Amino acid sequence: MDPGPQQRRPGAMPRRAAGANACLILVALIGTAAVCGGCAGTAARVCPAGADVLFAATDDSLAIDPFLLLDPAAQAARRLLAARRTHDAEQSRSAVERLRLLAAAAQAAPDDPDLWLALARARRAIGDRLHAESALEAAAAAVRRLNDPASPLAARGQDYRFQAALATALARAWHHYDRADWDSADEWARLTLQLEPSWPDGLRVHGLIQARLGQTSRVMEISEALERQDLFNTYGRWIHAVNDESQDRLRGALNYYLMLRPSAERALECYRDMGELAERVSEWSLASQWYVQSAAAGPLADDPCSRRLELPRLEPGADGLPARQVPVWLGLDHLYVTGSLSAYTRYAWEQFSAAQPGPDRDLWAGLAVEAAGIRQRRLPHDPWSLRVRGLVFAATGKADQAREDLRAASDAFAAAGLPADARTEAELGRLLLERQDLPAAGLRLARAVELDPNAAAPWCHLGAVLARKGDESGALAAFTRAVELDPTDPTAWFNRGLLNMQASRMEDAERDLGRAAVLAPDNANIARLLQQVRAAKARAPGAAPKKR
């Protein structure tokens, strides 16, 4: 990412090499096409099924070496193909088709950073942050190869290499800002300013990140520098609002936003920040208004591959009321574009919970974890975000991460003065039981059944804890409660049958294990234990002799 030995005067604006950055200009044209697509004519447009784009997305910076080993004629043919695919993407009115075409272009000529940057821009627009990051990593790898004099694109010159490095660093800073990954965002923002000191675009994103990090003195310096460059710039108020929000001066932040008209080039991000702050202070009409303006400012405005939903927020309503409904915009029916991240996090969690095992469930798991992680980084110690992420980790077998998040969620509920959450305690108790931490598991599960006495699973797990601790009567009562609440769960029947078997209550054991066998006919352990019980009954004194 080093721009090379060429020296630049402090505060100089980056120069554009004639013809060298055609693809970067094309990115802007693609964005315009996405906004204006469908303006001509009235025919309804339908977004084709696009989830397969997310599963099929593959970026590999290692593909550069095989490409460079091709003979010059083959490379030229691939570059021509990339140019055609990029042109077709510009003309396409479908976000899905644009993604496919831009991916094909980048993979055809993987040493061209402009192609990867165009792909990253398109993916970011649709809300696909995971694959946007992989495209940006590929762009960075392509920029590094420009340092090799033997690289075909080295002929574009020092200025091109500088522009590509600068564009990649700035894109990565904004990408990590979107993800609330402040430290990584700050590294990339600082790199832009190392490449081009006092560059306004670098100062703007750096100021926002420093504000998120609570660096008030640095925020003041950056804001003053931006004012010296442009007295009427709008970023100063945005930066000061974010700084106030990071210091929990929420009404002060709102006042800055009320006086702010965002600049067009970052209006989606700015209005999104404004809407989130309005949610935090319960200014619901303002939140909705600003989210609408965020969506209208984005490259997918009026695109059929982006749709608006009114969804309940993650946090429950006050005084037992239902959660408030707020707007969210989805890309490809899966991805968060803008709107309430709280509502999207809940939506992703619910979609994951309802999905059958398979690729779609895996996709929703990743999206729910990503959304909850962003919220948790934007609102440290938020119990609801930690809860969602912990529950997804628990359901997908990531036990260590699940225990960490659920324990943190439990602590955060208490620190915020909120009632303990039954589901959090139940899942944490189950995970501690699997780890054989019986005292801690028992405390969590006892709390879970106290909070929600009608949930069957924690009763079953509490029964297992009590049985292992030698409390037979307590375990029997817990298992009995579990089968009463959920007669279809073979585990509870099996556990109670095993307990009865160990206590030599063979009639009861046969009944319970028989029920478990009916519910889980393929479980060999249940069948084997049921056979043992029946054999023991047959050997018991007074048992009826077998008929010959």
Helix and strand pattern: HHHHHHHHHHHHHHHEEEHHHHHHHHHHH
Count helical runs: 26
Q: Indicate the proportion of strand residues.
A: under 5%
Rg over alpha carbons: 29 Å
Total strands: the figure is 3
Q: Stretches where pLDDT falls below 50 for ≥5 residues?
A: 1-43
Defining traits:
548 residues; 26 helices; 3 strands; Serine Threonine Protein Phosphatase 5, Tetratricopeptide repeat; 3-stranded antiparallel β-sheet; mainly alpha
Structure write-up:
- With 548 residues, this protein is mainly alpha-helical.
- Among the domains are: 22-32 and 51-178, no CATH class; 193-298, Alpha Horseshoe (Serine Threonine Protein Phosphatase 5, Tetratricopeptide repeat); 303-419, Serine Threonine Protein Phosphatase 5, Tetratricopeptide repeat (Alpha Horseshoe), CATH 1.25.40.
- 66% of the residues lie in helices and 3% in strands.
- The chain has helices at 22-36, 51-56, 64-68, 72-91, 95-108, 113-126, 129-145, 158-178, 182-195, 200-212, 216-229, 235-246, 250-258, 267-280, 284-297, 341-354, 359-378, 383-395, 399-415, 422-434, 438-451, 456-468, 472-485, 490-502, 506-519, 524-539; strands at residues 306-312, 325-331, 335-339.
- It has a 3-stranded antiparallel sheet with strand order 1-2-3.
- The protein starts with 21 loop residues before the first helix and ends in a 9-residue tail after the last helix.
